[in-house]
Amino acid sequence: MSASLDIRLKRANKVYHEGEVLAGVVAIVSKEAVQHQGITLTMEGIVNLQLSSKSVGVFEAFYNSVKPIQLITSNIEVVKQGKVPGGKTEIPFEFPLHTKGNKVLYETYHGVFVNIQYTLRCDMKRSLLAKDLSKTCEFMVHCLPQKAKLQPTPVDFTITPETLQNVRERSLLPKFLIRGHLDATNCVITKPLTGELVVESSDVAIKSIELQLVRVETCGCAEGYARDATEIQNIQIAEGDVCHSLPIPIYMVFPRLFTCPTLETINFKVGEFTCNKYKSNSATVCGLPMADRCDSLFLCRV
User: Most buried among 10, 57, 142, 186, by the most CB within 10 A?
Assistant: First the structure.
């Protein structure tokens, strides 16, 4: 006798804010009646932290002092012990998104070393001869918009052989000059990163110009903090030997699950993002593209 269990939220996008009500139904489908020992729903919000492999051993106290941080937890009994009739049964539920004490619901974020996740789990306990049923559903929490108006802070940048980072043989680099600007470094997370780039001169033909978005995650404890940067996405903004002195638009949409408004707590920090401009050409040193780092970006919600 097979039965399936599912959680269906009323909102198709599964996005909620603190103070709202998380509502939906538990759907049970079975050809025959199902005997059970009770059906429960558990809502949980947790921050999971971990160190990169290069930091293991440096902060040994980290694993003992920093456990998963619980932001919110709630449990309700949907149905008491009994029997669910055959066919399709939908049981409605509601969970208020309220924290206890001075805790705050951070925005959903899926990182490499910091992960902020909110889940709903439904469990149906059954007899020893039948397997328990369980279903987990993730939902997203977004911060409420800021009331204060955000003032854009434009930044100009210049890329030359002298400004490049992580270059061993700088003398072998071809001569080039690239100028541009970003419209803001304090960015609204729901709006794209925009700007402009101009190739003033280049001794060799350009093959491609790419824009890389990098996140910097910091986590640790009283012993110290580990700071690691990982790539989120890389987009191409120009292909081929572009015309010199011709403005090239910069337009990048922030991927929502992998970025979040800038957040800093005692045990971790996320939301410091960096843009790198990559330029590859026929005279690339050591087979690697040449990169120049822009100022850090700080994201918020307005």
Answer: 142
